[in-house]
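anyone else get weird line breaks when pasting these?? whatever heres mine. first is seq + tokens for prot A
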Amino acid sequence: MAGDELKEFRQGARTTEAANVYISYEKLLAGANSIDYGDLINLPIELLQSRPDVAAMLRRQYPYVLADEYQDVNRACARLLQLLAGPDGRNLWVVGDHRQSIYRFRGASPANMSGFQIDYPAGVRQELANNYRSCAPIVSLCSAAARCMHGANHAQSNDGWRSARAELEAGSAPRISMAVTDSDEAQAEGIANRIADFRCQGIPYSEQAILCRTHYQANALAKLLAKCGAPVHYAQGLLDRPEARDLLAVLQASIPSKSSVIALQRVATISDVGLSPIQGALLVRLTAETGLSALDAIQRSEVEDVFGEIPGFQKLRQLLHVLKDEIDPARCLERFVFHESSYLADLLGAEGASAPRDLAEQAQICAIRQTIELARMFTGSRRRLDPASAPHADMRVSFLEYVRRLMASGSQPALNLGDDLGGFDSVAMITVHAAKGLEFPVVFVPNLSEGRFPPRSREPLIAEPPGMAQDNSGDGDEQCLFFVAISRAREHLVLSRSTSSGDATLAPSRLITLIDGGLHELGITETRWADTQTRDAPEREVHADVNPVGKPVFTSSQLTAYLQCPRQYYYSRLGLDMAVDHPATVQQVPKTLQAALTRERIRPVRQPNRLIARFDTVHICVEADMIACDVEGRLVIAKHLMGKPQDRDQADPLLALYRRAADDSAPSQPSRIEIHYLSTGDRRVVARSKKYEPGRLLKFVEAAAALEHGEYPARPAEPGLCARCPYLVACPT
């Protein structure tokens, strides 16, 4: 079985598994006498289809039916609307714009717009062509984009809008600008400068908005803008806030479990305790060696001998002692914040009960309040589900597990300032999805690069059933999102992109081609924002017995772990390694593969550590999953992966390091780099790339230099890594 046939087989297997899970899920709902969101739509459909008398009664009761945002109606909602309005839809009125269909990932289909007169033959279509929001140049640009958009609705009128508002003075700033920068930092600096320019022209910060494609991008850009001094408000995930992490660390440290020592690094350095980072690191190492809980470990003589005379250490011991029996996570946090520490008072200042001085301080207080509210909500739901045992169970561990699930699933609550924003003038930073229906005098749309807007596409784990998707428009979703983004602006639109991020080169977004013609018609050309700031050297942390000493020699596994996340690597070197048990089937896979390699007369090399990649500043010992020789004497170095082959697998920098080690260690011996896929049995040979491999090798050289200097920033290599990290609560955000 190969190619498309194998792909279809896997999709079918996953779909069958999901269907079986859904059957069990439906049984559980029925047993609990509960329904979910889908049932709120499906059950009324079943009722109206099976009971025409009920449908007739509702039509008499509601003779007129109005539906907004019709382009975002999914198949089930469209059917419900038909049943409510009647087959002829005589008194049905809908409004929608197929160019703004941005919820297809929820099953919405703009095909409802093109098929309206098929569903309702007596229906009449009327184009709404006047735009009362934006100035003429922005309306012209949106219309140009609309003419280039494709998809299931391309047969409809795509002429766009006409500006139907009086022109206002634009001031000195152009209505539309398109900027390019050399780096993410320069892009943030350019946006910060334009924000300040608009403010000087009389446009308050609160009337400016930055629209990002994803929350991950928004969070990264918000941090860069904060360094530039821009007053930006981003409703980031609550659990990403440092205050939330502080409280979660207090919870974990108070648990009578070995895992509690992980949180000591963070708890030891909060204001009440006041240990230095170096002291905190040493405390974690000493307590981890005991194999005890945090409270038991800090009472051991070997720990007391080192920290006994430090006042903060005594405060830490007292704090853990009073919290150890607070099994309710909300009450534990309330006791810490309001009774056993000065944590909140330190944020409020000497006045104690004074109002927040700025937006940043307000966000801190809201994060504390909402974290406690989240714990209280969790406790309440557990008690309702299990009223007998829940009051006596320690729910701190289960709450921390719940928090991890929220983060891993992308469902964590956002920091909600709500009415608390009153009095603070700040720039809103939101995702394009959240901007739907909003408008601002000034709109920034950053990160217009491939892989960002649009983001990298991912194959769905479960394909839509045949016939479910009513259109297949390729980039249609992203085109609609881009159209929504640029059409939020009333007076000024600022588009920008960077050409690189770290070591990666970024190509212009293909979405820019939608507006190329419009920009040309308006005489707008791309401008370059210069990077005028001097970058500070990375913050360095030096901890005893953590940094390598002597000759700079590292293993490939060390540097790979560092590149995955420097901070996670640092915590693992403190002696807090978390063992992971693999299922027996996974453990058997290498044996099966080895048997297959033996049949192909490939034998392992007895001393694989002799493969060393030699650079001017560092030597790297390569630890590959397999280092062997084939029957022709060719050196074979392989990386093992689970899952199916992907093109991006061959871009792994580690493969370039394998080749460099082979070239340096055995220059006269031919070599071959391979990827072995354990779950499928596939083997792929990795071709040499003179264009890309030097840059990939540079990552390891730079990682070695950073390790030499004790640099351990919290910099995960991919979104979602933090939720899976065992050191989540200890890590600085």
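and prot B, same format (seq, then tokens)
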Amino acid sequence: MNREKFLKAIIEEINCFDSDQLVQLNNTYCDEQNYPDDQIYSNDANFFADHFDGNIMEAVRAVSYGDYNFTHDWVTFNGYGNLVTMSSVGTDDLCENIEIIAEHVADNFSDYDYLFSIDEDDFNIEYPFEEGDDYWIIENGEIVYSCWDEQSEELHTEDKIYFSSEDEAREYLNEETDEDDDTHLEP
């Protein structure tokens, strides 16, 4: 798998998520990491019923000592059990740094794939070399040296023949030349 490209694609998509998608991402991550206090909720009567169970004084305290705005769409708890609201949710509001969440998503993609338009299988390409490896190919009858990099991955095709050494490439080229010569011989 090309993990770097997969992570980059995940981060790019997360950066384009709307508030609802970011809340789903955040809350799924919080569930999996056991961070119940970092969940983000809809700022509505159900939230207060679920979290304060009729304890009006506790709800008033959480609002008074927090940063609460009744007209905001989203609410979460700060580290002291007080309420903080947001009119919209951005990547800065996630419970963890976006790169850390992206790493977790990549490792557990099946738990998050419903949020993403990318397909993990698109990144499961096995390349014949690692970045920085030397390799040789034959182009137009000539042996060509290169060093594996991102451009090599972009140009990679399954039918291209790669060689780990110049000697291997030369041997292959000689065999191909010998076979071509044999096909042109008269009986």
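btw re prot B: Helices lie at 3-16, 19-33, 45-52, 56-64, 98-107, 150-155, 166-183. The chain has a mean pLDDT of 90.
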